[in-house]
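TODO from last week: model sn-glycerol-3-phosphate-binding periplasmic protein UgpB.
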Amino acid sequence: MRFRSLLSAAIVWVTGAGQAYAADADVEFWYGHSGAAGAAIQDICERFNSTHPQSLPMRCIAQGSYEQNLQKTVAAYRSGKAPALVEIYDVATPEMLDSGAVLGLDGFLQSQHKVSDDPLLPAVAAYYSNADGNVWAQPFATSTAVLYSHADQLAAAGITQAPETWEAFGTALVALKAHGSKCPAVTDLGPWVWLEQSSAVMGAPLLSKDATHWAFDQGLHLRLMEEVEQWMAEGLLIDQAATRSGGQELAFTAGDCALLLGSTGASKLIYSVNPSDVKANLLPVFAGQQRAASLPGGAALWVLRGQSDAQYQTVAEFLMFLRDVSIQTLFSDATGYLPVTQGAATAYLAQLPADSATVVGLNAMTQGDRTTAFEVRPGFITLLRLAWQQAVWSALAGQKPMADALHQAARKGDSLLRVFENTYGPRETDKGVNP
């Protein structure tokens, strides 16, 4: 049922009516955050309004989760009541590009005579660019995946450094358990880390060369997931549901578990208890494999059609305001998200330890070959993630071999690629995707 509802929400753009011009009283920005991130966004909006009295007021409105924000935005656009600016999570990028509802960022800023002297990080901008290299959305709330470790627990088990390979990761798990750890590593087995990020850093294509079918049911990803199956069976890699807290970040932060593959966006929580003991490292790869770049995750800001000239002027001012190094620093410090421009990234690299999540995350996105990390963004990837999760857990429950489970998930993903093509038409092969 959830699978069908997500599919319906994803394709509804193309049947939508044109957007009518909105009133000029203010400018709405819809976002998908709560907690510290939501508070930081509200703070930024208040700062903008107080320092830009000549612009229309920005009304920054929380709309629930990323998924809820996307669904509400689609519904609002169809009814002619969409916001001017909306935060959409990374995996909906193909739908946004093909929706016909958005204005490309580069062209929009040029039309508003806005030029930034602090360019976006190439590794991040590329994800939101089309095949011609034009950026269509401004990165925001950006994150990537890293390996977190408790240095004291590793040292107590005789492990002198965090594992850089999957072989060393497995060895570390055994040593930690032998030393008495009940949770050598914790996981939620989320596909963003275990399918997309792990494949990217190993340079393992998720898609065929012509982007017509999924290829994660073979090669390095299959090898990794068979290792995961063994680690979980031996009590070396623990499902988050089996921990005291029931959540992987909480279990790691509390010191109940020694290792965690997680998001840099969770670093604010992860460093909140014992920051000097927590170290961040690049995700492991198999021995002998050339390391490649990790993926930029999180969200981006999209400019929607149907607004007035005065509203677009304010949107352009706001986007430039968000690029200011001081504003990026404020947001990153409050949330753990990564800076998105070269100037802000340089400032962070100079002031933070080399093993901090921010520094490791920024470096992770520029490692070696970036072809598999540039734009792993086929249509309906949210539904592919769901199919992958269902398949992996069925294998872990002993219902079928991991190879068969991944094969079935990949073929379901192939059918989603066909649905996307039939809905939006053939997609150009994006530059840098598994050439």
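Done. DSSP finds 18 helices and eleven strands in the chain.
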